[in-house]
Design a protein that fits this description.
This protein is of the alpha/beta class. The chain is built from ten helices and twelve strands. The protein has an eight-stranded parallel barrel, surrounded by five helices. It has a two-stranded antiparallel ribbon with strand order 1-2. It has a two-stranded antiparallel sheet with strand order 6-7. Strand 6 and strand 7 form a beta hairpin. Helix 1 crosses helix 2 and helix 3 packs across helix 4. The radius of gyration is 19 Å and the shape is globular. About 45% of the residues are buried. This is Aldo/keto reductase.
Length: about 300
């Protein structure tokens, strides 16, 4: 497994990381799968207080209670659970300082390696949000912080005003919008990109084609066909091609892959065996569809 530095931090994250949102409700089964991933080189595990109303963090915490110093635990904050079971966006300093205590308790740890704002808008009290992260860092409750966002205007604000080390964003052959500005900006500022959605909800693998982010089902099918053709030519899998495409983009440190089964874990681990996507293959894939641009939050 290859490991990459996250931004200017001293965190070394596995190139393939574990997106824990896909975990099941069975803590014991989850622990077995998480341990398998760890034993085969994955050291970065990404969850959020929103997932399963906190139970996802509980499952991850139970699994790594005895291995805490050997893993990087990342979680997210900003979606406040209300008494009626719904959620409301809350990026205030007071809420973040309160929410981190609950995440620490569920994760059974006294520090979080990477604490991320789970979204964000220009209407947020951004300086107060950053102040919350800075205070938690000074107190030793988090090691570093970042944001999870697809919004260029929000990302620019945090680049200018914060000391974040990473941005998690959606990026795939069916969503190349980050290529317009985000990837270049973050790379220039030595802020790492954590990619989610590299399989485009499975549409690049084996899911039936459907309309997706402005592309017609026919266009989505054409891209999936091109991915399979490239995979066949190189004697690798479609998942290996889809993931390697995003991993080779400037500034990308890790592909956060949602893993629910042992089969999905095995597929994710095989990505490492495919070291490089040939430039001709990459160019052919890039030419299948015209890249979209963000229409909102520019």
């Amino acid at each position: 497994m290859k490991y990459n530095q996250l931004g200017k931090s001293d965190l070394q994250a596995s190139e393939i990381s574990y997106g824990c949102m896909s975990l099941q409700d069975d803590h014991a089964a989850n622990a077995r799968l998480l341990h398998q991933a760890f034993d085969q080189g994955i050291n970065y595990f990404d969850t959020a207080d929103l997932y399963q109303k906190g139970e996802n963090e509980v499952s991850v915490g139970k699994a790594f209670k005895g291995r805490r110093s050997n893993v990087l635990l990342a979680t997210k904050v900003g979606n406040q659970l209300l008494p009626d079971g719904s959620t409301a966006w809350n990026a205030s300093k007071a809420y973040i300082l309160q929410a981190v205590e609950q995440s620490l308790r569920r994760l059974q740890t006294d520090y979080i390696d990477l604490y991320q704002l789970h979204g964000g808008t220009l209407d947020d009290p951004i300086d107060d949000t950053i102040a919350a992260f800075e205070q938690l860092q000074q107190e030793g409750k988090i090691r570093y912080y970042g944001i999870s966002s697809i919004r260029p205007n929000v990302i620019r604000e945090y680049v200018q005003r914060s000391a974040m080390v990473s941005v998690m964003t959606q990026y795939s052959l069916l969503d190349r919008r980050p290529e317009e500005e985000t990837l270049k900006l973050l790379h220039e500022q030595s802020i790492s990109v954590l990619v989610r959605g590299s399989y485009a909800q499975g549409l690049l693998l084996d899911k039936p084609a459907k309309d997706y982010l402005g592309y017609s089902a026919k266009e989505v099918g054409a891209m999936a066909t091109a991915v399979r053709a490239t995979a066949s030519e190189l004697n690798v899998s479609a998942a290996q091609v889809a993931a390697r495409f995003v991993l080779e983009a400037p500034g990308v440190a890790s592909a956060v892959v949602g893993i629910r089964t042992a089969e999905q874990l095995a597929e994710a681990l095989r990505i490492e065996a495919f070291a490089s996507l040939p430039s001709e293959g990459r160019q052919r894939l890039e030419q299948v569809l015209e890249s979209k641009q963000y229409e909102q939050h520019r």
